[in-house]
């Protein structure tokens, strides 16, 4: 492993100063970064360990009802936080559908947001990858790409963002609080990740030294708590990234939808909010035909980037299913196989 | 030698035999507490760390390495390259026996496959060696990679597996197919798979002059010892290999691999102990794999559903520089009665590491294709797939006409079907849904694996204190050899299992043969059994020839060893303890040796196979195509079962691998570079617990008087066969979609 400088700042300003240098990287749980370093995909000069910064591991209710989640809160702790899971059940379900129990016990909120793509060419350092090395080319474009993007991709990059957590977050208008050299600012999660365009290495809107200190879920998003699901198609029942995933949330009064949220995962370089599709639901009494129309709208701009045309129809069907399940109501307890199409099946335990 | 003993008292007082008891594995506590010492856990004083630098191209040569840059990195001690390495006494490309495969030991600058070792960096720390390897920044002269089953022109392999003929015919298949009122023809593809043992290949090597000490996992200690001896030009008995535990092998640790030998070379180069542990991605190349296949099945049947012809042709790949051919079509030799059977193989050479034995090599790949085709034929004949299999039940081995030494397959079908609840299965597909609307399908597959025997030796000792010692250099890969073989050893000595010190896992013990071919318990067990009989015979001679013994004169009647005493066979009230016999003879101990080998007469007379029937239920999301194997029941007849708990565990493992084969496992290779893109356990999928919610393995009683003295057939590999096909057939039954490319993926079903 390449030798690197390890610093452990005591305060956020110290952390920002230390991480603003070229070649620096923040280290939290390291569940992604350490693998990248072992594989030579990331070769930071300096690791800035933020795990000892104070007060970043809290979950707190803000005046007005929003929930503020510290950047260092562990995925498992957040998913099992009762207040959080009650208000934002689809987010809890997404968290519990990701990775393995061991990884969820370690991985942090902000680390999850900033995880790298799982594109095999990004990890294979002998392959050309514009995301890893700007200008190198994209070996995925004509390569083994059945898992790659169908929305928002470019000739420069067809990778997807792998997070489950981020998908319901963008659906629910979650916001990240960022501390940087220019002070504190807020960015919607939806605006945090960038589509590749001609600069796929520029993955997000963070500046050097920027540190995500918290994630905020607005109070308003809790209106969907009774009708919110996250659903994930994967190639084994657990411990697999999504082929396609969807977060669906509906606010229904009587039989009429007052508001709806829809986002897709595994389809683009960022968690994909489907706003135009959402709009089709508002004010209607939803039925199967409506859901199919919503799904068509959500994928209207999709096109295959390789051997992955199936993902487009799969995503449409998943949208229909997720909306159907959301309309049926959030289950009283999280299922034993969170986000799985088989979640309703009897397992070893009835609930997570 | 690790301290291994029963970790819990038996649930009930045992009488007589240790064999047949479901003992909990005796090394279990060591493993769950971390006290079991695996190869990489060893840290001799002065240890250095070696890390492989591997090729990023699949074919060509290394033009340059930045050796100075690597050496300049703090902590780097040396860089072993083709120009700077200890001399070898033997060409790594030499082949002098069928179990000898060509190795990449830095003999030149050629690159044969991506991931091949091209240099070894040796350093004071793992981190320094790792960075040193990265700093080598190789430059290559690359040639286009040959990738996949169509990577080059195909040819007829000289032999498949180990010395099996590449083409076998019995009867006139073409005429039978032409005449058949019903024919089924289909082509199936299976992917490249990698063993992915949990424990990566590791070696800790220390030289003392021309003596060598090695800690390394091995499924074949004496073969490894011989390979090292040949390469380094030293006497085998100067090499001491310790392999008390393996974190899985599955065939990949059957022959010592190139990287393990590079660790030994590195230790020689620097004159200090060296540890080399493969990284996960480095296990995708130099330690073998299961080659991909494309198999064409043509079946003919008469009007009643009786098979008249089976033609099974398999195309596979091997490396550009060596020969191992997955004998996939041979799966059709033994299972179904047909008057005409033809099997054949073709192969292409591509730029990969040489494929090798991987759990049920040939049987697993061939089984999923054959069982799928049989299912297709059953449906074409309008028959239930189980009834079709029973109608075509082979009373003798079809390809040879030999009788089976034993074959309780009918009982397997019956017991498996009963436990599963097969009766009432609708014949047409896509007929069953569960309460949540998921498609439900049921499939069956027949399991079979040959009952093999290699050659092994064992040494038995009875000591004056009445306890015993049994030695054979056996290998516990996790399958439970420490326990099952100790059970046989204790029975051989007529002692309780805790009264016998069972020694295994090192190269200075009698040769236990190879732990492969599902033959280890049968082979090493027979050697232990015979050693026990021999030492008991010596003890009996001492007693029956001594007029002071209550057994005096019992020579003709014979004696029985039980509970640490010899009893007169015709009068069991007359007995004497082992200690008394030895004390009177003035002996501290008595020892004898035994061998375990196949009986050539029995082998030429009988076909010897284990059998089984696997029933699978899958559920498929009708819209999303996601599949889950919700229930598997396998019923297996494998002769005498020494330890039913461990045997079930082995069968579970095989059945899970069958699920993996049908639904999950596949190495993804870039079609241009030949590099594998999912060489890690996050992306190379094997089933997790949630993928196998319900498994049941039924052990069907079977007595086989011919396979060996103990009647053991082996359970290591059979579980994969049958299971993969059962799952695939269940997917068809659930969806009506016959997927012929494995693993079955969502895009194949999404239109279902």
Automatic annotation (TrEMBL), chain A:
Residues covered by the FAD-binding PCMH-type domain: 1-222
Keywords in alphabetical order: FAD, Flavoprotein
Keyword presence, Acyltransferase: no
Family annotation (SUPFAM superfamilies): CO dehydrogenase flavoprotein C-terminal domain-like, FAD-binding/transporter-associated domain-like
Coiled coil: none
GO terms of molecular function: FAD binding; oxidoreductase activity
Keyword Flavoprotein: yes
Pfam families: CO_deh_flav_C, FAD_binding_5
Matches recorded under PANTHER family: XANTHINE DEHYDROGENASE FAD-BINDING SUBUNIT XDHB-RELATED, XANTHINE DEHYDROGENASE SUBUNIT C-RELATED
Protein name per UniProt: FAD-binding molybdopterin dehydrogenase
From TrEMBL, chain B:
InterPro entries referenced in this protein's UniProt entry, alphabetically: Ald_Oxase/Xan_DH_a/b, Ald_Oxase/Xan_DH_a/b_sf, Ald_Oxase/xanthine_DH-like, AldOxase/xan_DH_MoCoBD1, AldOxase/xan_DH_MoCoBD2, AldOxase/xan_DH_Mopterin-bd_sf
Organism: Chelatococcus reniformis
Alphabetical list of Gene3D superfamilies matching this protein: Aldehyde oxidase/xanthine dehydrogenase, a/b hammerhead, Aldehyde oxidase/xanthine dehydrogenase, molybdopterin binding domain
GO MF annotations, alphabetized: iron ion binding; oxidoreductase activity
Protein name: Dehydrogenase
Region ranges (Disordered): 1-26
Lineage, highest ranks first: Bacteria, Pseudomonadati, Pseudomonadota, Alphaproteobacteria, Hyphomicrobiales
Domain Aldehyde oxidase/xanthine dehydrogenase a/b hammerhead: 33-144
Taxonomic superkingdom: Bacteria
Signal sequence range: none
Polar residues: compositionally biased ranges: 1-22
């Amino acid at each position: 492993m390449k030798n690197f400088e390890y610093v452990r700042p005591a305060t956020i300003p110290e952390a920002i100063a230390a991480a603003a240098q070229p070649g620096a990287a923040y280290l939290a749980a390291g569940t992604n970064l350490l693998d990248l370093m072992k594989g030579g995909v990331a070769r930071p000069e300096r690791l800035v360990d933020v795990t000892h910064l104070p007060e970043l591991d809290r979950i707190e209710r803000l005046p007005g009802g929003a929930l503020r989640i510290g950047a260092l809160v562990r995925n498992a702790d957040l998913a099992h936080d009762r207040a959080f899971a009650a208000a934002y059940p689809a987010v809890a379900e997404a968290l519990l559908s990701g990775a393995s129990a061991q990884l969820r016990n370690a991985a942090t909120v902000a680390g999850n947001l900033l995880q790298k793509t799982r594109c095999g060419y990004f990890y294979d350092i002998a392959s050309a990858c514009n995301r890893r090395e700007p200008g190198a080319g994209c070996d995925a474009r004509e390569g083994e790409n059945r898992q790659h993007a169908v929305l928002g991709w470019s000739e420069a990059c067809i990778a997807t963002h792998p997070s489950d957590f981020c998908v319901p977050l963008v659906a629910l208008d979650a916001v990240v609080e960022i501390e940087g050299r220019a002070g504190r600012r807020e960015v919607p999660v939806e605006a945090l990740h960038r589509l590749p365009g001609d600069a796929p290495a520029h993955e997000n809107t963070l500046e050097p030294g920027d540190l995500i200190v918290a994630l905020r879920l607005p109070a308003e998003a809790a209106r969907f708590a009774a009708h919110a699901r996250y659903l994930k198609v994967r190639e084994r029942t657990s411990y697999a990234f999504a082929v396609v995933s969807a977060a669906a949330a509906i606010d229904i009064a009587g039989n009429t939808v007052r508001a709806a949220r829809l986002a897709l995962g595994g389809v683009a370089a960022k968690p994909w909010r489907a706003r135009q599709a959402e709009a089709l639901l508002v004010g209607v009494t939803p039925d199967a035909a409506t859901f199919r129309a919503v799904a068509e709208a959500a994928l209207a701009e999709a096109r295959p980037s390789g051997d992955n045309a199936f993902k487009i129809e799969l995503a449409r069907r998943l949208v229909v299913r997720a909306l159907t399940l959301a309309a049926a109501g959030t289950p009283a307890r999280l299922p034993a196989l969170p986000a799985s199409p088989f979640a309703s099946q009897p397992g070893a335990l009835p609930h997570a | 030698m690790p301290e291994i003993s029963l970790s819990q008292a038996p649930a009930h007082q045992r009488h007589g035999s240790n064999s047949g008891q479901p003992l909990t594995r005796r090394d279990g506590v060591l493993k769950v507490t971390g006290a079991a010492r695996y190869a990489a856990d060893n840290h001799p004083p002065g240890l250095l760390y070696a890390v492989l630098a591997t090729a990023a191209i699949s074919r060509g040569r290394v033009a340059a390495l930045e050796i100075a840059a690597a050496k300049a990195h703090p902590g780097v001690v040396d860089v072993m390259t083709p120009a700077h390495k200890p001399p070898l006494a033997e060409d790594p490309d030499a082949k002098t026996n069928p179990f000898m495969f060509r190795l990449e030991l830095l003999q030149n600058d050629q690159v044969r496959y991506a991931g091949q070792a091209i240099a070894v960096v040796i350093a004071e720390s793992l981190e320094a060696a790792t960075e040193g390897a990265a700093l080598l920044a190789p430059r290559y002269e690359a040639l286009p990679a040959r990738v996949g089953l169509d990577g080059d022109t195909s040819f007829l392999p000289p032999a498949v597996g180990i010395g099996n003929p590449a083409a076998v015919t019995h009867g006139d298949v073409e005429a039978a197919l032409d005449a058949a009122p019903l024919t089924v023809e289909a082509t199936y593809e299976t992917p490249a798979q990698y063993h992915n043992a949990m424990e990566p290949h590791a070696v800790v090597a220390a030289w003392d002059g021309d003596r060598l000490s090695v800690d390394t996992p091995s499924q074949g200690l004496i073969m490894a010892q011989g390979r090292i001896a040949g390469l380094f030009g030293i006497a085998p008995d100067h090499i001491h290999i310790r392999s008390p535990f393996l974190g899985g092998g599955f065939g990949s640790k059957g022959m010592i691999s190139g990287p393990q030998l590079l660790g030994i070379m590195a230790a020689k180069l620097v004159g200090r102990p060296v540890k080399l542990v493969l990284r996960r991605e480095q296990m995708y190349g130099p330690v073998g794999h299961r080659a991909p296949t494309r198999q064409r099945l043509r079946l003919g049947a008469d009007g009643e559903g009786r098979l008249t012809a089976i033609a099974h042709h398999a195309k596979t790949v091997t490396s550009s520089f060596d020969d191992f051919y997955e004998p996939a079509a041979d799966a059709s030799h033994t299972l179904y009665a047909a008057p005409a059977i033809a099997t054949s193989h073709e192969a292409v050479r591509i730029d990969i590491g040489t494929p090798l034995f991987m759990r049920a090599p040939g049987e697993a790949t061939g089984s999923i294709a054959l069982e799928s085709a049989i299912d297709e034929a059953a449906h074409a004949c309008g028959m239930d797939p189980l009834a079709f299999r029973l109608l075509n039940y082979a009373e003798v081995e079809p390809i040879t006409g030999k009788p089976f030494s034993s074959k309780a397959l009918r009982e397997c079908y019956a017991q498996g079907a009963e436990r599963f609840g097969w009766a009432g299965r609708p014949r047409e597909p896509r007929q069953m849904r569960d309460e949540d609307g998921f498609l439900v399908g049921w499939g069956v597959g027949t399991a079979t694996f040959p009952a093999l025997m290699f050659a092994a030796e064992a040494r038995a000792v009875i000591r004056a204190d009445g306890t015993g010692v049994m030695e054979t250099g056996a290998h516990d890969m996790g399958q439970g050899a420490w326990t099952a073989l100790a059970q046989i050893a204790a029975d051989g000595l007529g002692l309780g299992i805790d009264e016998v010190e069972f020694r295994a896992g090192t190269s200075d013990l009698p040769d236990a043969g190879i732990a492969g071919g599902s033959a280890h318990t049968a082979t090493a067990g027979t050697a232990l059994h015979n050693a026990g009989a021999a030492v008991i015979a010596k003890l009996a001679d001492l007693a029956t020839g001594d007029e002071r013994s209550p057994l005096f004169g019992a020579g003709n009647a014979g004696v029985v060893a039980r509970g640490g005493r010899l009893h007169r066979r015709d009068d069991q009230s007359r007995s004497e303890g082992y200690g008394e016999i030895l004390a009177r003879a003035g002996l501290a101990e008595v020892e004898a040796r035994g061998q375990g080998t196949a009986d050539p007469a029995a082998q030429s007379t009988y076909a010897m196979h284990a059998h089984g029937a696997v029933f699978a239920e899958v559920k498929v999301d009708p819209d999303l195509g996601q599949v889950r194997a919700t229930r598997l029941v396998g019923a297996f007849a494998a002769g005498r079962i020494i330890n039913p708990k461990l045997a079930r565990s082995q069968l579970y493992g095989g059945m899970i691998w069958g699920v993996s084969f049908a639904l999950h496992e596949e190495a993804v290779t870039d079609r241009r570079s030949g590099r594998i893109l999912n060489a890690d356990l996050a992306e190379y999928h094997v089933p997790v617990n949630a993928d196998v919610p319900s498994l049941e393995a039924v052990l069907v009683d079977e007595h086989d008087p011919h396979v060996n003295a103990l009647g053991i057939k082996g359970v290591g590999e059979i579980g994969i066969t049958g299971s993969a096909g059962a799952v695939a057939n269940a997917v068809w039954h659930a969806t009506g979609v016959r997927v012929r490319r494995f693993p079955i993926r969502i895009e194949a079903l999404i239109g279902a």
